[in-house]
User: What shape does this take?
Amino acid sequence: MAAATGGDKPPLYQQVKHELLAAIAAGEYAPGRPFVTQREICERFNVSHATAVRALNDLATEGYVVRRRGQGTFVADRPPAASSPPDKTIACVLQNQGPHVGQILTGIEEVCADLGYRLFLNHCENDPAREEKVLWGALEHQVSGIIVYPAEGSLTVAPYAEARRRGVPLVMVDRYRPDLATDAVVADNMAVGRELTAELIESGHRTIATLWDEIDVTSIRDRLAGHVQALRENDIPVRPDLTVLRRYREQPTEARRAMLNELLHGSHPPSVLLCSNGYALATVAQDLVALGLEVPGDIDLACMDDAGPFDVLPLTAAAISLPARDMGRRAMTLLHDRVSGKPSETQLIVLPVTIQTRQSSAGYMRISRLEKGAS
Assistant: This one.
């Protein structure tokens, strides 16, 4: 374990303590059995004896381990029970902001108001380290439950394991972590990729290029899988250069436009650019204008969701509308069921999506480069 750097990470002894708590929660150390020694902690985490001692002292003080004179340290037979919170409080951990996340939050807030919960909101700006810190803070404040919109690429495990050990319900929204057994409420992202691609094929598009924003989240991987499925169902070859999962929006402007120019002027150029979300679509539209291309004259656009800085429908041949508000409501309702002690298996709730086409829209927008001197 590397030494803590930056202001957002907890002290090193707390990091060690959290790792050890996760190990206990995962069953690596059974109740009543010998616990890891001070020397083993030093070797395992590459920390000083002082750090190891402080982590062990905290675990003993909080009742996770017990010390027996002349025998050593053992895992407690019964983990300490968290005291009941004075009132019903929910921590909501969201990534990014914008209309899509705002609608999810609106749904959560509506159910909180109906059921009498207090809501503590944290925006983590898609930062896994910040997400971990906020989750530990929520547990320390003994919230009744937690809703998480997980960060892209997050691998943190310890606070989730500790929430499970304490019996604090946790529901993920919009996306889920395949490595963690938690409740989740998501849109049908397989259908997003499959149905949107099928609509484009029916409209005459046979060569479809995908452009991505985030890549390391379940929603995007499911959308790509649905897209590929639709291509195969329609006997269209899956071209790696058109389906490669790579970031578009984060590239430098010149690199993006060079890649786009090469793609559109190849031997078999796409007739439509299928963007992963509204933010990618907005960037692509700007780049097309800079390259002197018209939409829909030279190339068409489609979008896998309506999350973005503006309404994506006027710019697209087809786009998906996500049930963002309903996702928030269903996530909070499920969390309330868990807080209330209603028994049930872990659930993955998948909500249907809506596809909208240019023909069903009230109108559409053409984008083109405005030459100097034009009136």
Notes: The CA atoms of residues 58 and 319 lie 53 Å apart. Residues 2-8, 81-86, 370-375 have pLDDT under 50 and may be disordered. The first helix runs from residue 12 to 25.
